Structures are given as structure tokens and as C-alpha cells.
Amino acid sequence: MKKTIAFKKVTYEDCDLLHNWMNEEHVYPFWNLNLSLKKYQEHLKEALADQHQTLYLGYLDGQVMSYWETYWVKGDVVENTYSSSSYDQGVHLLLGEKAFLGKGYSLPLLRAMIHFQFQVADTMKIIAEPDIRNEKMIHVFKKCGFTPIHPISLPDKTGLLMFCERNEFEKRWLG
């Protein structure tokens, strides 16, 4: 892919954009955040104040097109779904702009974010728990180096717990 990938931290000013994306047909069945603007504003305020996660917008060649949540597993609802370590991180993502769907951008974007997360030297594992029905994203996670572990019950979905081990990722993409 001959495009520049960049990530910028989300601010409250990004609320309208994110709210629009959360109401897209390809997003809301898996994110369950197709709320009224007022309720989404409250949700975003809480998410931005949550110290165990960081929210990002993803850009391709300067155009905003994706949303990312990176988080520390410790303190998250998934913490007790496996034997987690102190520096395990997790990731959520969505492509918000329809024009970018089906173009093969998900894998290089995910690879860039996972590489960024592994910049924390003590992080040996990145987890994901995509909605078990989201076959497209599960396929992308597998291509990136994630291994399916088992289904997990979460408050808003049944997810497929997936692990990306540092050694596997580096061997696949950096070796």
C-alpha cells in the first residue's frame, strides 16, 4: 500500500464524526453504539476520561477514515476471560468511511496499530475480541497474526478472544 498511515488521539470535537460512523449500517451491528447524539456525547466523554484506554482516529494520506480504541487489559471487562498479564493490551477498530471499505486497508492499518502498541517493551500480547459474527474482521485479525482462542461473553456481545503474540507478529512482519 503506497499510502501514509497516521493516528491522532480523539478529542471531544470529533464527536459528530464518530456519532455518524456509529450509525453506519456496517458499524452499528457490531459496535452497538447507534445512540442518539446526546447519549453518544455522554458515552464519548466517559470513554475519553477512562485512563485505561486511548482513542484514536486513523488517517490515510491525511484523510480521516477509521476509529481505534487501544486499552490495557488490566481493568477492562476482558481481564478475567483469560490469564492476563500486566502489560497485555487490546484493540478495537472500525473503518468509518464507506469509501474505504473493501479496498484492503484494514490489514495494513491494523498492522501499523499493533506495531505501535508493541512499542511498549513489556507488552508481549495484544488481544482482540471482535463480535463472533464479524467474519470479515476475524479474517483480518488472523491475517495480521492473531490466533483465535475461544468465544467470550461480554456485556454487549459474544466476542471471539484472539491473541497476537509479540514473537509471532515480529516474525511475520518485521523479520
From TrEMBL:
GO terms for molecular function: N-acyltransferase activity. It comes from the Bacteria. Gene3D superfamilies: 3.40.630.30. Residues 5-167 form the N-acetyltransferase domain. Pathway: Siderophore biosynthesis. The keyword Transferase applies. Signal peptide: none annotated. SUPFAM superfamilies: Acyl-CoA N-acyltransferases (Nat). The keyword Transport does not apply. Keywords: Antibiotic resistance, Transferase. Pfam families: Acetyltransf_8 (PF13523). PROSITE patterns: GNAT. One of its GO terms (biological process) is siderophore biosynthetic process. Acyltransferase required for the direct transfer of medium- to long-chain fatty acyl moieties from a carrier protein (MbtL) on to the epsilon-amino group of lysine residue in the mycobactin core. This is Lysine N-acyltransferase MbtK. The lineage of its organism: Bacteria, Bacillati, Bacillota, Bacilli, Bacillales.
